[in-house]
Write a structure and sequence with these properties.
Helix 7 packs across helix 8 (about 165-175). The chain is built from ten helices and no strands. It is mainly alpha-helical.
């Protein structure tokens, strides 16, 4: 292996261990300006369906309360409706609820329950939850550290087209984290991520190209 290969670790490779806690945060909260007190017609119709038990409507209503779209912004109400939909098996609602629980946004912070919902959403095919679960397995702060499991969940999200997961998986394959080293597979996933515009994957591929072009100092 080229002597400079491990310098990839210092070049902004998107490994979970190099990321701050902000990487696990839910979408940024908008400013706290208020909308009119009355519900919009869409919100009225959505709430009717949500109260009847429709998980899609419950997830949509949760989003409306979170963003303040047609309703007064209320993160506690958002968490309430996401929880309703999560309990009915909606993977997107499960993932969002997990993010809210992790940050204590609109609900009491509970990282253990957050992980439960990340696991449920990840098993349900939500790629955001799969990446966040992989991050937790990689870091080992709440779950036990398990790089092999991190790699498993990243691969699922990568195959679903998530660019961030593709870049992280590529890095793990290049460095042999969580399983055998696979330079060709790692480069393949990095190229897929770069093709989607992931800047870290592009940077890593440029570095790999420079390393291949430079002479090995051991020779």
């Amino acid at each position: 292996m080229h002597a400079g290969f491990l310098t990839l670790l210092a070049l902004g490779l998107p490994l979970a261990a190099t990321e701050s806690r902000a990487a696990l945060a839910p979408p940024a909260v908008l400013t706290l300006s208020r909308v009119p007190q009355s519900l919009s017609p869409e919100a009225v119709a959505c709430r009717k369906l949500a109260e009847a038990g429709d998980p899609d409507a419950q997830t949509r209503l949760g989003s409306m309360f979170y963003m303040g779209e047609g309703v007064v912004r209320d993160h506690a109400q958002a968490a309430h409706w996401f929880r309703k939909a999560a309990g009915r098996g909606d993977a997107r609602a499960q993932a969002i609820l997990a993010m809210l629980l992790e940050e204590g946004d609109g609900v009491a912070q509970d990282r253990t329950e957050a992980l439960h919902w990340y696991q449920e959403a990840a098993r349900g095919g939500d790629s955001d939850a799969q990446v966040r679960l992989a991050d937790h397995y990689y870091l080992g702060e709440v779950l036990g550290r398990d790089r092999a499991q991190a790699r498993v969940w990243l691969e699922k999200a990568a195959r679903a087209g998530d660019a961030g997961a593709q870049a992280k998986l590529g890095a793990m394959l290049l460095l042999g984290e969580g399983g055998p080293t696979d330079p060709e597979g790692g480069a393949l996933w990095l190229r897929k991520a770069a093709d989607q515009g992931d800047p870290q994957a592009k940077s890593c591929l440029e570095t790999l190209g420079a390393l291949k072009a430079s002479p090995d100092p051991r020779r």
